[in-house]
Amino acid sequence: MAPEDLPPMEVANSLLDLVGNTPMVRLRRVGADLTCDLIAKVEMLNPGGSVKDRPAIAMIDAAEREGLLKPGGTIVEPTSGNTGVGLAIVAAQRGYSCIFVMSDKMSPEKVALLRAYGAEVVVCPTAVPPEHPDSYYSVADRLTHETPNAFRPDQYSNPHNPEEHERSTGPEIWRQTAGRITHFVAGVGTGGTITGVARYLKKMNPAVQIIGADPEGSVYSGGTGRPYLVEGVGEDFWPPTYDPALVDRVVMVTDRDSFDAARRVTREEGLLVGGSCGTAVHAALVVGRELGPEAVVVVLLPDSGRGYLSKIFNEDWMMDFGFIRCDDPCAGDVLASKDGSIPDLVLVTPDETARSAWALMRGLGVSQVVVSVSKEPPLAAKEVSGTLDELSLMDLAFRDPAVLERPVVEIMSPAMPMIGIGEPIPNIVERLEQSAAVLVLDGGHPVGVLSRSDVLSFLAGKAAG
């Protein structure tokens, strides 16, 4: 047979041609207690493993059309990992170099994955404001200016980000649900996904409800942008790609609820999903409990859990941050056994004077205080910057009394070791062999300090009992 007479092969010309048209699946077990229909849009099945493949292609296509990205150029972008993968795939196909800037809370798997594509990865601190020169936004700006022939897609302000979801993701959801969707739930990061999908769905049916899922601490649900542990969702500023007028409701979700939901979806549905998926699923369950059988709730699952194996699917990590407890007596039991005569957690800020910190210690009868950039509850582990203890302060003041007028940040010691509230007593004892006290975390939040005396009193009480 002549080649033109042969049946066509079902082969894509490029990996990029496989982006989109992701399937949908009912979450039958996770949503078993709901009367509404709970359906997941499974974006992990994009070639790069996430929903970010869609805007990555769109932004680079537009940059090439507009002459902003030239052959042999370098793509520079701050990313939580998924956008970086999407951009890296495009770069590999088209011969560009990549530099990605990530915050230090991202899992090591994400950093390793981007480097596997040949990208350079620069890691920056989380607990700094966006305008700080070390923030990952500022570092990305600097690298863009310093790198010859560089282009920064800037997913946070690039209009092609939401436009791509209006063009592809929204129509897919409408078609796959035969127009029966009543509620759409998605995590809000850059805001591109939820904004673009909302534009299309509300154009097709203005009654469709759009629900944003947001980490506790993020600005979208009323926070100030304080650190949280879930990755790839939430923000500490309002990006231009997010249109709040299209979002009918925002559900705040704690790290604990995000991680619990991710682990539950993985174990009950066989879908290995990440923490931001857990954020969206928890919000969908909150909304779904209020709805009847006529409702069709679609929750977008942005990525896979493969990038979180060292974190939310690692029992040691989960215990270290106080998300799970052992069956034996643990740090929480020791904390609960304290008599309450002194606060569990005493905080000072780095700019307070050593004299005021010492007056606080003396007034409360404590021998050390935790130095934190914020005193507002719930405190995040990333906000802890050091420790000031009575013994060290006395030694410094003996040599130079003027040290008492200096700010705490200039004389503090490193932060005390942190342990999870569910860690067993032997683990605490081991840490206290190296340090006079440990900071206890519950769901990623510091909740108290344990000293050697506290553990000894607990053990003595058990022996007496």
CATH class of the largest domain: Alpha Beta
Task: Specify the biggest β-sheet.
Answer: 6 strands, mixed
3D shape:
globular
Number of strands: 16
Mean pLDDT, all residues: 94
Give me the strand/helix succession: EEHEHEHEHEHEHEEHHEHHEHEEHEHEEH
Strand order of the largest sheet: 1-2-10-7-8-9
What fraction of residues sit in β-strands?
15-25%
Number of domains: 3
Helix content: 25-40%
* Backbone CA Rg: 25 Å
Q: Provide the CATH topology of the largest domain.
A: Rossmann fold
Cα separation of the termini: 90 Å
- Overall structural class, as computed from helix and strand content, comes to alpha/beta
Tally of individual helices: 14
CATH architecture of the largest domain: 3-Layer(aba) Sandwich
Query: Would you identify the regions where 5 or more consecutive residues have pLDDT less than 50?
Result: none
